[in-house]
Design brief:
Helices cover about 50% and strands about 15% of the residues. By secondary structure, the protein is α+β, with helices and mostly antiparallel strands. Helix 1 packs across helix 20, helix 3 packs across helix 20 and helix 3 packs across helix 25.
């Protein structure tokens, strides 16, 4: 039922809208009043224009106003029955509102700017080496300082002539340094954390980057090379697995097996068949070893390098050793980077995930700080930092002191935010302790301020953006009208078997099967063509006869065949039922051959679905009449006429 409810809301959202924040319409011109509720001309025009723009059969404003009133009456009645107070309603409305708010809380220009940056980086791969000095997840000031000083000392040595690779082997805390000596090979966009990627692409070849901080710790990078991106490649492979703990005998066996397979290929064996039969990669073996498209950084470097090195489609590599075993790689196809316009939507989706989204969020927050007059109370911030700096206190004592501080921590518009709220949001964090690092506290303050700014904006979207108010209310009205219609109309019609049968008995004439004609119709442009048809067609009509007539008469003849119901097509109706004498050939320029059927009464069981739909309409019309009498809506027609 929830699926149908959501579908109803989406369909309904193109029809009518209610006012979600009533006080936002105080300055708008009232067109409709129902009790103490006022609905504005601006709202009506908005939804009228929206609906008519997508309607195949536009209606006048006067006709649409009647529909508008009926829907508003249903919403009012749903409220009077308390349907808008149900937890299920509030939860679903909240979900829709949060989804609708997302575009208003994003900086689209900044998102597209970052997406464009990502695309430009897709066109180039960067070969980098790095050195990592780790920092604990929730560091004390001395931990952060110690790590920073260490990475700075290493960088200074390299700048003064020390070999980067030697320094990486000696000092880097990245576990992979044992095997790669700090060299990560070629990387591309989205393959590392964003700050690391920025350093890689912003550092010239042969130079060492400034110190950067990521979630792992402090890094320095050296850019070894840049190259044009080779794009993506599609390959198949045959693999023989070599486990990490494999014995020398097992390693030798895997090498012999891959060499044997290679020899079979050299002698003309089919790659796909060998993959199905011998490959240890059971995910791809049934597909002849075929893998999905991939670019740089998606596969193990040894495998990726060998795949991109194959010069032509249809060629395969010699056996290649990777850390998981031996491979023979067959190149199926290769392609360059797609144009930006083709990748734009996908890139923006990726930008909205991970650290890149912070760029758009940061731009949004900076804009909102100005729009919403954000101010920080430096006195309260100093009190917070000074209070936390005292190590000689219990955490509960600290929290109690902060919660009682009387002055606001910040202001957003006309709203004041206090330290008690900050403590509620962050006070129970593990890192929020007496003597905590000032860096940690500043980070928590930034997080708190940013979240409060975003939340303040979300709470005031209806006031700032009328189109958002209308949009949210589409869902508000839709949910309420679905619930009230289900209760007052749909369920009643389905459950009232006695009333349903009585309705059928009283309206049987509406459920007769229509008159029908089954057969062939020949529409002739001339009497001569009609005579030709009458001459050729006797008791039996075959495809051969029809083809002969079409060939003989060409554009002078049009042929229709099938079952034709009266009332479905005006032209056909005129041909078949436009005269009393139905004898073939009597009507000028039309010949028909087949069987007529009179309209027939249909059993209740056969048309129950149609009866239910009509009965629902009957109940709804009666209900609307009762609502109009109950609420006595006041319509200001003079207001509507002023816009015509």
């Amino acid at each position: 039922m929830k699926k149908y409810r959501s579908l109803f809301v989406l369909i309904f959202s193109t029809l009518l809208i209610n006012v979600y924040v009533l006080n936002a319409q105080e300055k708008e011109t009232p067109l409709l009043e129902i009790g103490n509720q006022k609905y504005s001309l601006e709202e009506f025009n908005y939804i009228y224009d929206k609906n008519n723009a997508i309607s195949k059969e536009p209606v006048s404003k006067e006709d649409y106003l009647d529909l508008f009133v009926n829907y508003k009456l249903k919403v009012i009645e749903a409220r009077s029955q308390g349907l808008d107070t149900l937890p299920s309603f509030k939860k679903e409305l909240s979900y829709y509102r949060n989804e609708l708010a997302k575009p208003y809380l994003a900086d689209k220009k900044e998102e597209e700017k970052v997406a464009r940056e990502a695309y430009e980086r897709m066109l180039e791969d960067v070969n980098v080496s790095h050195i990592l000095i780790r920092v604990p997840k929730n560091p004390y000031p001395e931990d952060t300082l110690k790590a920073y000083n260490k990475i700075k000392e290493i960088r200074d040595k390299i700048i003064n002539g020390a070999d980067f690779e030697d320094m990486a082997v000696k000092y880097s805390e990245d576990p992979s340094v044992v095997k790669n000596k700090g060299n990560l090979g070629y990387i591309t966009v989205f393959r590392t954390v964003y700050p690391f990627e920025n350093a890689a692409y912003n550092t010239p070849v042969g130079e060492v980057s400034p110190i950067i901080r990521t979630s792992f710790g402090y890094h320095i990078l050296k850019v070894n090379d840049r190259r044009k991106s080779p794009g993506e490649v599609k390959v198949a492979h045959i693999m023989k697995i070599v486990r990490r703990d494999a014995t020398e005998e097992e390693k030798a066996k895997a090498k012999n097996e891959i060499d044997s397979i290679y020899n079979l290929l050299q002698n003309g064996a089919d790659f796909k068949e060998l993959a199905r039969k011998y490959s240890d990669d059971r995910n791809t073996a049934p597909k002849g070893g075929e893998l999905e498209w991939f670019g740089i950084g998606r596969m193990i470097p040894a495998f990726s390098d060998a795949a991109f090195a194959i010069p032509e489609n249809g060629q395969y590599s010699k056996p290649v050793r990777s850390r998981v075993g031996w491979h023979i790689i067959y190149r199926i196809d290769k392609r360059g980077v797609k144009p930006y316009d083709e990748l734009k939507d996908e890139l923006i989706k990726k930008v909205k995930r991970g650290e890149r989204q912070l760029a758009g969020r940061k731009a949004t927050i900076e804009r909102l700080k100005k729009e919403d007059n954000f101010r920080v109370n430096s006195k309260a911030v100093d009190f917070l930092k000074n209070s936390i700096a005292d190590k000689n206190q219990q955490k509960e004592e600290l929290l109690d002191k902060l919660e009682k501080y009387p002055e606001p921590l910040c202001y957003i518009g006309d709203t004041a935010c206090y330290l008690s709220d900050f403590v509620e949001k962050h006070g129970r964090d593990v890192s929020f302790v007496p003597g905590a690092s000032s860096i940690v506290i500043e980070k928590k303050l930034d997080t708190y301020f940013n979240n409060r700014i975003i939340n303040y904006e979300k709470e005031h979207l209806e006031d700032k953006y009328p189109e958002f108010r209308y949009l949210v209310t589409e869902y508000y009205d839709g949910l309420l009208i679905f619930d009230i219609s289900q209760k007052e109309v749909w369920n009643k019609a389905s459950a009232d078997t006695t009333g349903l049968k009585k309705f059928y008995d009283e309206h049987k004439e509406n459920y007769y099967s229509p008159e029908k004609f089954t057969g062939d119709i020949f529409i002739c442009k001339s009497k001569k063509a009609k005579k030709t048809v009458s001459k050729f067609v006797k008791d039996t009509i075959t495809p051969e006869i029809i083809d002969s007539l079409k060939t003989l008469l060409g554009d002078d003849l049009r042929h229709e065949s099938g079952v034709f119901e009266k009332g479905n097509n005006e032209e056909i109706d005129a041909m078949l039922w436009g005269q009393e004498d139905r004898q073939k050939g009597k009507k000028p320029k039309v010949c028909y051959f087949g069987k007529f059927e009179e309209k027939k009464e249909q059993k209740f069981e056969d048309v129950k679905g149609l009866v239910i739909a009509d009965y629902q309409k009957y109940i709804e019309d009666k209900w609307i009449k009762e609502l109009r009498e109950k609420y006595k809506p006041v319509i200001h027609y003079d207001v509507l006429k002023k816009t015509e």
